[in-house]
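seq:
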Amino acid sequence: MLGFGLSIEPQFWTLLFVMVRIGAAFVAAPVFGAFGVPVQVRVALSGAIGVLVLGTHHVAPPAQVFALATFLAIAGEAVAGLAIGFILQIAFAAPFVASEVISTSMGLGFANAIDPGSNTATPAVGQFLSILMTLLFLSVDGHLVLVDMLVKSYDAMPAGAAWIAPERARAIAMFGAYAFAAGLLLALPVGFLLMCLNLIVGLISRAAPALNLFAVGLPASLAVGVVGLAMAFPAMGDYMLVVIREGLDATQRLAFG
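struct:
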């Protein structure tokens, strides 16, 4: 009997309890939490991984389903899962920071497109960098590493006793600062070229005030930006791998303490 006299299999409630942390992580994590991923797929993956967790860990079913202690335990599981997925999502914000700097300097700040992952308007350069980041994340098996960390997190944070301590919340905030700095470093090669171009255009405008800057500056910014992006793509890809590894390491520190 589980609360209010409901005669329901304890294993079913235990599976649902385990799925809370996994499902919350999938909602906040990149790739799994993309807008185009159906909810049914997330639920199915959460259930499959939950069965794996029950096979490798001893999880006691809740004594009473409709009890305050059970609701608090579910809230703790949801917060833990959201934190694990959110810290990876922060790493994926670095390309968008870089794209804002590059697009504005190139004169493409008005060229927005709908990002299929978040279903929000983002610069065209940012969408391209986001797709590149996603492909690199999948190429290093980041999605499998995330699933492995979710399963092993039940050793460090047993089901029902998971909660985000203040120092772990501070680590999430500090990683957000790292992601912002990483985005600026990601935009540094192309941004530096465009800044030099703007300085040159400014000097030319002082030397020849009658010159139409919009007729010269905008095409030059677009040309230099495109060429700079093409030349900087190998270095940007390597640095994106560094950001992904840092994100996975931060997720591991958060999950395992």
